[in-house]
Design brief:
The protein is an alpha/beta fold. It has 16 helices and twelve strands. The termini are far apart. Bound molecules: 5-phosphoarabinonic acid.
Length: 401
Amino acid sequence: MINFDFHKYIKKYIKKEDKIIYLDKAKSIKERFVSGDLSYWNKLDTFISKKELIKLINLTDFIKENCDVFLVIGIGGSYMGSKAVIEALSPLYHRKKPEIIFLGTNLTAEEYYETINYLEDKKVIVNVISKSGTTLEPSIAFSLIMEMMEKKYSLDELKNRIIITTDSEDGDLRKLVNEKDFISFTIPKNIGGRFSVFTPVGLLPISVAGFNVAKILDGARESFDKVDRAIEYAIIRDILYHKHKYIESFTVYNNKLYYFTEWLKQLFAETQGKDSKGILPISCVNTRDLHSLGQFFQDGSDIIFETVIGIDKDFKIALEQYDIELNNLNRIALDKVALAHSNGHTPSNIITIDEKNEHTIGELIYFFILSSIIGAILLDVNPFNQPGVQDYKDLINNELK
Ligand code: PA5
């Protein structure tokens, strides 16, 4: 379950009359999600068909039994969601087998050299993920890894060890599936990378990492009828933006949510940062970052607000000298920091999950996906494209020609 407090540490900045002008917009956005052109977002089938879900769960068992390393190749939305969920839910040490390695997120020779050496004596299954099938970084990663895989395994064996997640018809990766008969999954045409955690893009690596994807989907389903909450959050962000709050920090109090904030940064930056508009998403992992960014939030330029994600239930560790449990102290820190920052000029939205598990993470992901789309509609930008990402690609590609 998620609790939202969009009031306590923000009331000074948002008056009732600020919200009134959004009433008509909120009504029409809700209608679009409930029964209009955006209602496909509220159906699980939009993300994955029942047939693909069963295939994915069955394949998970095969993968776990047949490799030491599950190598996921992809960038942006093709890796951030699964990385975020796996890091949020996995133990710090002694993780379950197989080891999950992500590759294709950069062009750093050192990383490729070390990874290929590391994989030399390991049993490997590769999942290459790219909707377009043309993105430079994963294409390079895949070609280097294929070279290695072809030395290690016969063509027949590769059919069990290369899994391609891509568009149902278009792109070079789909062509390769058709030519070589590799195992494949489909990325739905109407779901862009950053929204694809509930498609095979996110679910296969999450499932191989040992998490119950049905519970994640249950969490998402529970958020379907909470569009009002997402609208409220999007309106608050929009009001703050028009009051010159140009930066939003996604602030967490648990290191394991660091990659979740990375996913949030990608989600909001690519969905809303266009046409010279949008709020710049940054992130803070507290209490560590209170000793760095915290100074700026309290006392620096008046351009920031925070969206803080807290977790109610955690391991019980007693601090006898203070007669308090460590997790309660962490919660006190969250509240007092929000109070101090809002007494300065940085207000905070507080979002709390009762417990960190598959269900609540699924709920949170869907809430933020909806909010990012609604926020883009309020800004009057297209939520579903990312034209700015193309420019650097074109320049590099020209150089390669
Ligand atoms: O959200 C998005 O659409 C992007 O971040 C893409 O996921 C990213 O650019 C990778 O694209 P592709 O899956 O086509 O390789």
